[in-house]
Design brief:
The protein has 254 residues and is α/β, with parallel strands linked by helices. It has 9 helices and 7 strands; from the N terminus they run H-H-H-E-H-E-H-E-E-H-E-H-H-H-E-E.
Length: 254
């Protein structure tokens, strides 16, 4: 799931100008062009790596996110859509879906999954849609890659009708007994896998980007500041993923 001007969905969708060489992947923060290039390179193995890294649970999480916010007939935006798995889940629930991403290679694969979803190459920080255009919105593993997270959340709020819901899936840092296993898997084994895969630097960037991303409570606060209410989250997969849901404030439409 990617979007221009991010620094995102797999477990890392693009977003959006310095070169990749100038900004180390270990920082977890990249300029837009570097992120787009990174996701273009890993597009061929993106879906397979998502299945491996989550033991196949990512698809269940996407369906859960969709079930929270999408109803049959809804006009749905899946921002930072990547290869389209979350957009397809929204369509299967009966939504009329637009999937937006700024990585052309990711969208090539998304188009193979549905010929009825409207696939748009665009910038999540400057969404090419009118105000209040959508009944629901989703982002799967993409907001972490936005160069300006607060601005991206405000854009999502802008294009939702008053009272419409947003669902955000994102990797988070688990606590308790899961934490050491997560660190071994995510900080050691995932980067090692990247050494033999296309765009291997992406698998160094991924754990670094999770380390510098706000935790669930802080992300909830950012959503509220962006104009969402009734914000809540639940932890999934033993605490390695957070699903946030919020509703656009009705008064924001005035």
């Amino acid at each position: 799931m990617s979007a221009k001007r991010t620094s995102g969905g797999g477990l890392g969708e693009p977003g959006g100008a310095t070169s990749a060489r100038a900004e180390p992947y270990e920082s977890g923060t990249l300029a837009p062009d570097a992120v787009r290039g990174m996701f273009d390179r890993i597009a061929p193995v993106y879906d397979a790596m998502n299945r491996v890294m989550t033991v196949g649970l990512d698809q269940r999480w996407r369906r859960l996110a969709v079930s929270e916010v999408v109803w049959p007939g809804d006009h749905v935006l899946d921002a930072c859509c990547g290869t389209g798995d979350l957009a397809v889940a929204a369509e299967q629930r009966g939504g009329r879906v637009v999937g937006l991403d700024f990585s052309g290679r990711m969208l090539e694969r998304a188009r193979r999954k549905s010929g009825t979803i409207e696939w748009v190459q665009g910038d999540a920080l400057a969404l090419p849609f009118e105000d209040a255009a959508f009944d629901a919105a989703t982002v799967g593993f993409g907001v972490r890659n936005l160069a300006d997270l607060a601005a991206g959340l405000r854009e999502l709020n802008r294009v939702l009708r008053p009272g419409a819901k947003l669902a955000v899936l994102e990797i988070t840092r688990p606590r308790g007994i899961v934490r050491p296993f997560f660190r071994l898997w995510f900080d050691v084994l995932v980067p090692l896998a990247g050494k033999v895969l296309p765009g291997g630097n992406a698998y160094t960037y991924l754990p670094a980007s999770v380390r510098r991303f706000p935790g669930p409570e802080d992300l909830s606060a950012l959503l509220e500041t962006a104009g969402f209410e009734e914000v809540r989250y639940r932890l999934l997969g033993g605490g390695i993923v957070a699903l946030h849901v919020g509703r656009r404030r009705v008064e924001e439409a005035s």
